Amino acid sequence: MTATATEFDQQWETFRAERAAWARQPLGWLSLTGLHWLGDRAETIDGLPGRWHADAENVYVTVESEESGQLTLNGEPLAETAVLTPGEGAPGLEVHLGSRVIEVIRRTGQFALRVHDPESPTLAEFTAIPVYRPDPAWVVTGRFEPFEVARVVTTGAVVEGLEHHHTATGTVTFDLDGETRQLVVFGNQTLGLHILFTDATSGVTTYGGARRLDLTRPAADGAVVLDFNRAVNLPCAFTDYATCPVAPAENRLPLAVEAGEQDPRKEHAA
């Protein structure tokens, strides 16, 4: 980086380095090698010990004597028939198998196993997240207006039949491309506010389901900054084994937001 780099450039380089580190996590989203939905009949899954099934509330894994000790949860080996109860929509329970992790998840009342492998081909082949060239013109100021009472917004998911239930805490209004826009905001002012949105680039140069943009903490008058250069992909842009939400209908911008991350699986992304 040259001595003449601006603060905008410096912050951009730091942000991109953070995103690259996120993508390279040994057991992160790019390490996924499978997503296996469970039914009520015990079944074996290629490459995994045990026989797995689920009912309405729990996941069960039956471990044969010769497999004993291969699977561990919280450092304790699973033996005979173990009962696992992941939370709805929450991070999964992590069952360890050597260097791999079997993440036991619950989504819209259905249970699945998500397999993380630090030697996954997707992770090994990762070089960089394609991104539009940063441009300060895509940094705009908006105004956050909180709802009197937070409300739940339900969206679909990239997996058919699943739903996501988001806590919407307000709206953000801003001017972009000569018009006033308004989008629904999720999260809270303590942990952070963000939007999920699509635009005219979605499904073309950017991922079609949604991109995420974090907002700055609102000022006393509600002012926030939306830096669309920092619009990022959800995990489903990188892998077929995620269950990400799609953007709510209210957050579909009609213009092309040629800023932020592009679809890493599009050949023409640059």
TrEMBL record:
It comes from the Bacteria. Pfam families: DUF1684. PANTHER family: DUF1684 DOMAIN-CONTAINING PROTEIN. This is DUF1684 domain-containing protein. The lineage of its organism: Bacteria, Bacillati, Actinomycetota, Actinomycetes, Mycobacteriales.
